[in-house]
Amino acid sequence: MIGPGTGVRVYLACGTTDMSMRIEGLSALAQDVLRQKPTSGAVFASRISSKA
Questions:
Q1: pLDDT in the model for residue 26
Q2: Quick one: which of 15, 27, 31, 45 could link to 38 by a disulfide (CB 3.0–4.6 Å)?
Q3: Strand partners, 46
Q4: Are 8 and 41 in contact (CB under 8 A)?
């Protein structure tokens, strides 16, 4: 398994994430909720909700 390099921060969002928000909305969540720059090199992971 390939993992992130040493020193890379990984943020895991609890709950579900609505992927219909697109990248712009997800970037805004990283900035507003986590107070992190989406371009910082960190890894942002979440569970995707299913609307099926």
A1: 81
A2: 27
A3: 13
A4: yes
